[in-house]
Amino acid sequence: MPEEYVKFDLTDMKNFEYDMKRCVRCKGCKWVDHIYMPGATYSTRCPSEKRYLFDSFSAWGRLRLALSLLNGRIEFNDRFVEAIYKCQLCGACDAGCKRNLDLEIGSALESLRIKCVADGFGPMPEHKAIAEKIEKEHNVFGGPADNRDKWAKGIQTDDKAEFVYFVGCYGSYKMQGIPKATANILKATGQSFKIMGSDEYCCGYPLYSTGQIEKAKKAAQHNIDTIAKSGAKTVITACAECYKTLKVDYPKMFNKSTSDMGYQVIHLVEFVADQMEKGTIKFKNNIDMRVTYHDACNLARMSEPWVYWEGKRKLYGITEPTAPRRKGTHGVYHQPRNILKAIPGIDYVDMIRIRENAWCCGAGGGVAEAFPEFAQWSAEERLEEVDEVGAAALITACPRCKDNFSKAINASGDNIKVMDIAEMINEAIK
Amino acid sequence: MDLKNELQKIVGAGNVLDSPEILEEYSTDNGIYPPGMPTVVVKAGKSEDVAKVINLANKNSTPVIPVSSGVHFQGCTIPYQGGIVLDLSNLNKILEIDPPNRRVRIEPGVTWGQITDELAKENIRVISPLLPHADRSVITDYLEREAPVVPKYEFAEPLMTYEIVWPNGEVFRTGSASVPGYPDSPAKGTNPAGPGLDFYRLPQGAQGTMGVINWANLKLEYLPKINKIFFMPFEDINAAIEPIYKIPRVHIGQEFFLLNHVDLALILAKQWPDDYDRLSDILPSWTLILTISGPPRRPEERIEYEKEALFDLKKQYFQDMPILEALPGVPGGGRELIHMLRKPWPKEEVYWKNRLSGACQSLFFIARPEDAPSFYEKVVDEAPKYGYPLEDLGVYLQPIEQSRVCHLEFNMFYDPDDPIEREKIRIMNRELAQDLLDMGAIFTRPYGDLADMVYEKATSYTTALKRVKKMFDPNNIMNPGRLCF
Amino acid sequence: MTIPQAAYKVLEAIVGPDYISQDPIDCEAHTPGPNGFETDLGVATILKSPGCVIFPSTTEEVQKIVKTCNRYKVPFIPISTQWWSGRGAAKVEDALMIDLKRMDQCDIDDKHMFAVVGSGLIYSQLQEEAMKRGLYTTIPGGGSQVGVVANHILYGSSPLNYRTCIANRRILGVEWVLPDGEILRLGSCALDKDDYLWGEGIGPDLRGMIRGFSPGWMGSMGIVTKMSVKLVPFQPDKPMPVGISPDTAVELPLKRINWYNFILPSKDALVKAMYEIANAEIGAGLTKVPLFWRAIAKANNKEEFWELWDQESEETVAAMNVLRVLLIGFTSEKQLEYEERVLQDIIVKDLGGKQTRTKPTDESWVKNADSASMWMMCGGYTSLEFDFEAISHAVAKGVDCSKLKKGYTPPLMKAYGDQGWFQVGDYGHLALFEFLTYQDPDDEQKHKVDEWSVALSKMNIENRYYTAQLASHKPLFLTGPAYGPDYHKWMIRFKEEFDPDALSNPPGPADTDLFIQEAEWMQKVKDWPAPKIEANKNPKFE
C-alpha cells in the first residue's frame, strides 16, 4: 500500500480508514473469545447485533458503512443514524477484534459518531436534550448545579487533600448512597479527600459518546482546569463512566496521552484493593449472600490508558513508530473480585461472560437515553445470566449500570438485588 | 448387427455367453427371490470393455446387470428385465499395494480369499465384514456398505476412490484419483472427497444401479501379530448394552461384536453337525466377542493398558459381566476365532450362514444399540407366527464407529430347495421388516421386497434419488427394477 | 436496487417486519469486503450488494422464502456466518440475502454421539457443548467462528482430523431446502424427519450432492437448514480456559492430553516420522507448521512479526523441521504414557529427532483456531491452494508450489522457500496440504495474486496434483475438464436439474470464471476454452 501519514485523531474518519478496510468479518467483535466460549448460549458479546440482527447493527457492518460513507457510496439517512446510535459503544467489539487483529474498531465507531454530528445528522434528539441540560446546569438531569454536593452535607472533606473525589452526575443527583458509601470508605481508611462541588461538571461522557465532541471538550476542559486548580494529583471516582472519560477520553479529545494529563485517575475498587494489600481496610461485617459481579465496560475492557500516536502506515499496514494498541488486557478486572471474595460470608460466583467478554448492561453510548427499550433488553439478558449462576445479588462498580439493571428488575419483578460495590464495601466495613 | 455380435466385437466371442445352462446359472442367486433370465452374459476381460458394453447397452436400451462376486444373497443380480449380465469376475487384478500410504487398488473381481493372503505377506489387511464368503468381491461388500467387524475407527468407510463407468457410459475417477493421468501421478487416490461433488457414496448401497466400478482404492491397516480374545457370555440381551456402548468408546479393542448362540455355534462348529448341536446347547444365549491386539510398536504394552482399562470399565459399569479368555466347553476355548476373524470363511467349507439349512436370509438394518433388545423381542414374538423355530434364529449385532450405531442382523435359515419354506421365509422377511421399520429400524440398503416399503416412507428422498438417477442413467439401463428405479 | 415489491410483501408476511429490510443501508452493511476471505482478491470486483436481507428462524420459513423467490424469480443467496466472504455475496443485482444466523439450534445426543445443528451455530459453541459431554468435534482451520453446517459441507480440515477424518465425512442426517423450495432429507431423517441418527442412503447416498464445487455449493444449491454431525469420544478431563485476551488458552489436563514438539534432522526424517507414527496408530494430531506461524505466535503485533520474520532466511526456513504431535489418552492415562514411549522410539531413537519445550496449554485446535490472525501480518490472506492426499503428495506439491511462488513474490509475502503446511489425516491415509497466500491488498501489483491462483491450477494439472479447489479461486472451465475428467459437466448437470432458473446464488459454480471473463488483467493468462458466463444464468458446457 502507498505510505500514508495517520494519527489517532478522531475528528477525521480518514485516520481510521485502514481499520475499516481491513476488517475481515471474523466476528471476533460478536463472539465471546472462543477459548471462553460457554456453549450454545451466552455466546455473543455485542448487544446491538444480537438485538437487531442486521449487519448495520454490528461492528463489521458499521465499519463497512463508515467506509462507504468515506467513499461516497452512501450518505447519512435515518436508518444509518439509527444504526450508529443503537450501540452502547461498550468496547466489546474492540477488545474482541484485537484478540487477533490490530484494528481500531472503537475509535472508528467513535469517529463515525463525531462525523455524524459534524455533518448535522446526529445525535439523537434525546442526546441533544441532555446536552442542553449539561450546558445549563452541568449535569445530565438538569437539576440545579448548586445541588451537586448536597449529598455531602455533614461529610468531612479536606481542601488540602491529594485526592479529589469526582462524584459524577448519578452519584450527585440520583444515587447518593454511592457517594456517601464512598466517603465512608475513604474515611475508614484514613484517606482525606476533597470534592469539586458545583465546579464539578458532568464528565462529558454523554456528550463525547454521542459524537458531540465540541461540547464534550468544553466540559472536559472545565474539569481539567478545576482539577489542576485544586492541586490534587489523584482523581478518585466510584463511577466507571467518569473514570474512563477522565482517564481515556479527555486525552483522546485533545490528542494527548493519559500520562500527559497531570493527574491520575483511580476507581474506588483500585483504591480499596490497594488498601487491602496494605491492611488498612478490614471487612468486619458478615454478609451471607451469593453474589456476582458485573464488569462495567468503562472500568473493564475500555479503561486502559490512552496513548496518542501519529506516524506512518506502510506496506502491509506496518506502523512507524509502532502504534500502541489497547487490547483490553489490563482492565480493572481482579480488584473488584478480590474485594468481594474477601468479604466474610460472601459466596462469590462469576457470571458466564466476564472481564473482556462481559455483556454490557445496556445503558452506555447514549442508548439508555435514546433507546430505553433496547437498554432494558440488554440488561435483561445480563440478569438472566445472573439467574443462571444462581446469584442473589448483582454487584456493579458503575451507577449507570446499577440504574439500568434496577429499571429492568423493576419492570420484570425479578428479585435479584443490585448493589454498587461501594455500598457493599460500606456494609462490610461497618 | 445384433447385440450378441456387437458384444463379441467388444469382449471377444469366448466372453459372450448365452447357452441356456449359463443363462440359467445367472438367473438366480443364493437367496429367497425367484429367478429371472438374462439375455446374454458378458465376461469383461479388461476394464475398457465395461464402458463399451454400457455404451452399447444405452444404444439398444438394454438392461445391464453388473456382477462381481461369485456369491450373492439378496437377489440384486437377478436380471428380472433380461438384458446383459456384465460379469466382472475376470477383472480380478490387485493393481497396486502401497504399504506406506496404506492403500490397495483392486479390480471388482478381487475376492476376499484372494486379497487377504496377498496382503498378509506385507503384514497388512483390509478390515473385513464378519467372516465374508471367500468368493465375495471385496469392492462389492463395501459398495454395499457391509459393516466392518472392527468398530474402533472413528469412521468406518474403507472405500476411498474409484474409477467408475456411469450408466450413461462416461468414465470418471472420483476423489483424488480424479487427477489427470492417474495412477501415473503424485496423487495416490487416498482421498474420497471432492474436488467438486462427492461421488464416492453415490454408487454405495446402489445394488449396481449407479454404474460399474473398474477399480477402487481401499484402506489398509496393519495386521496385528499379537492378540488376545475375550468372551463375555450372558443370558439376557439387555446385559450387552452397557459394554457395547462403553468399550469401543474408550478405544479398547479391535474386532468387537455380539452373537447369539446360534450364530456363534455356526461359526465355531468344526465337525458338522455334531459340533453345532453340542455348541448350540452349551453356549450361552449371547456372547460379546472382543479382540485386543498389538500394533507394530510395543504391542504387548498396548494390549496391557487396554486390558487394564477393560477391567476398569467392568468394575465401574458392568460388574456382573464375566470377561473370559476362553469359552467354557468349547474346544480350544474358541480362541481360534481370533485367526478366523482376520480371514474370509474357508472356501472349502460350506459358508457359515448356509451350514444349518443350506441357505440364510439375513434381515438387517441400522439401529441404536440400546434398541436392540426391543427389536429382538419383536422378532421373537413374531417368528413363531410363521412357524419359524426360535432355536434356529441367528442374531448378530455389529457396533459401528465406536457404537454410535449398530448393524443388527437376524439370520433366518431355510432349505433353498424347498419352495414352500423359501416362500415362507420371504413372507416372514417382508412382514418382519415392515414391523421393524415401523419401530424405527433404519433400513439403509433395502433389498428385494423391502425397497418398496422403505422408499414409500421416504418420499422426498425417493423423488430426489430418481432425479439424480435420471441424470446418470437417462435410459434406465443399469440394473433396472431395483430400489426405487 | 430492490427486489420486486410484491415479493417483498410476501416475504415480510413470512418473517415479520423486524426480520427483513431493503433499506440501502442494511443492504450495504451486508455487502462483504473490501477485506476478508477472497474479498481482497480480484473476484471482489464482481460482488454486488443484496437488494434485500431476510432472517428466517425455521426451516418452514426458509422453504416459504425460497418458494417465493421461485415465484417472483428473485435470485437468493444464503449465508450463515459469511466468513467465506467472497462467496457470501451476491454476484447479481437485486438478490435476496437469506441470513441464517437465527437458526442456531444445537441438540446433542450424547449416547449416539451426534449433534443436530442449525446453520447459524459456530464451532466453538459446538465444541464446548460437546466437551461438556465428554465428546469433541474438530475445530477447522477456517476458525472457531465458522458455521458448523457450512464447514461440514466444505471440508472441515484440522490437525485433529488425524483420527477423525475431515468433517465432511462426518455428516449424518441433513435437512435441505432445494433451490425450488422442496425439502430433501438425507440419511435416517429421510425415513423419520426427527431421527437424525444416521447418514447413509436410503440406497444410493446423496450426501455427496452437498459438496458442490469444492468449498460446498456456497449457496448455489439451496439451503441446508439443519444437519446432524458426528461427535467423537474425548478423554474425561475438560480443558479449562485461562488468561486474558489476547493471551487466552485452554489448560490441558496433562496426564490425558499434551502437545509435543520435535525437531527432526531433515525434512525426509520428518516425513518418515509422520508415516511411522500413523502406522503405529498413536496420536491425535500430527502437523508440520510453517515457520512464520511461530513468528505469529511470538509477536504481539504485526511490527513485531516483521522484526522476527525479517531475520529469517532460506537456510533457517529449510532447517525448520518441526513436527508437532498431539497425544490424547482416550483410554486412560496409561495410553498417553504408552504413546509417549512409542513417540520417543520413533522420533528420538530411530530418526535422531530432538524434543523441545511445549506449553502446557493449547491456543489453537482443541477449542479455538485463530484464522483471523492470518490477516495480521500483511492485511491480505487467502488459502489459494489446499488438498487432502497422501503425505508424499503433500511433500512433492509443497516443493513445486514454493518454486512457482517465487515468480509472484512480490506482491506475495516473501516466504524464504517455505513449502507449505501439511498435517496428517485419517491415521496417515492422507495429509492436508495448504499453501497460504499473503499479500498487501492495496499493493500496486495485487492483480498478480489472481494470476498466481490460475498458475497454481495450471501447475496442478500439468504435474497431476490433486486440488481441493475445483472452482473456488479456480476457473471451473480450466479445472473441470482436467479432473474426473469433465467434472464440470456433472456440476452443471446437477445445477441444471435442481436449479434450472439459476436462482440459488448464481452463477455458481462459475463465479471465478465470471470474474476472469470480466477482468481485463486476466485476459493475458486465460488460454483455455470457456463459454460466455452470464451472471444470472447457469453456465453451459455444450
How would you describe this structure in keywords?
heterotrimer, B: 485 residues, alpha+beta, Uridine Diphospho-n-acetylenolpyruvylglucosamine Reductase, domain 2, Uridine Diphospho-n-acetylenolpyruvylglucosamine Reductase, domain 3, Vanillyl-alcohol Oxidase, Chain A, domain 3, six-stranded antiparallel β-sheet, 14 helices, globular, C: 542 residues, Alpha-Beta Plaits, 5 domains, five-stranded antiparallel β-sheet, 16 helices, 21 strands
Structure description:
The complex is a heterotrimer of chains A (430), B (485) and C (542). Chain A is of the alpha/beta class and 430 residues long. Chain A is 43% helix and 9% strand. Chain A has a four-stranded parallel β-sheet. In chain A, helix 3 packs across helix 6, helix 13 packs across helix 14 and helix 16 crosses helix 17. The longest helix of chain A has 18 residues, at 213-230. Chain B has 485 residues and is of the alpha+beta class. Chain B has three domains: 3-87, Uridine Diphospho-n-acetylenolpyruvylglucosamine Reductase, domain 2, CATH 3.30.43; 94-222, Uridine Diphospho-n-acetylenolpyruvylglucosamine Reductase, domain 3, CATH 3.30.465; 227-438, Vanillyl-alcohol Oxidase, Chain A, domain 3 (3-Layer(aba) Sandwich), CATH 3.40.462.10. In chain B, 30% of the residues lie in helices and 19% in strands. In chain B, a hairpin with a 5-residue loop joins strand 8 and strand 9 (171-173). In chain B, helix 6 (241-249) packs antiparallel against helix 9. The mean pLDDT of chain B is 96. Chain C folds into five domains: 5-99, Uridine Diphospho-n-acetylenolpyruvylglucosamine Reductase, domain 2 (2-Layer Sandwich); 106-233, Uridine Diphospho-n-acetylenolpyruvylglucosamine Reductase, domain 3; 253-300 and 324-359, Alpha-Beta Plaits; 377-474, 2-Layer Sandwich (Alpha-Beta Plaits), CATH 3.30.70; 475-542, no CATH class. Helices cover 30% and strands 18% of the residues of chain C. Chain C has helices at residues 5-15, 24-29, 59-72, 123-132, 148-153, 161-164, 267-279, 291-298, 302-309, 314-318, 333-350, 391-406, 447-463, 476-482, 487-498, 511-518; strands at residues 20-21, 52-54, 76-79, 96-99, 106-109, 114-118, 135-136, 171-177, 183-186, 223-230, 232-233, 240-242, 249-251, 257-263, 285-288, 322-328, 354-356, 361-362, 380-389, 421-425, 430-439. Chains A and C meet through helix 3, helix 4 and strand 8 of A and helix 2, helix 4 and helix 9 of C. Chain A: One of its GO terms (cellular component) is plasma membrane. Chain A: InterPro entries: 4Fe4S_Fe-S-bd, Cys_rich_dom, HdrC_iron-sulfur_subunit.
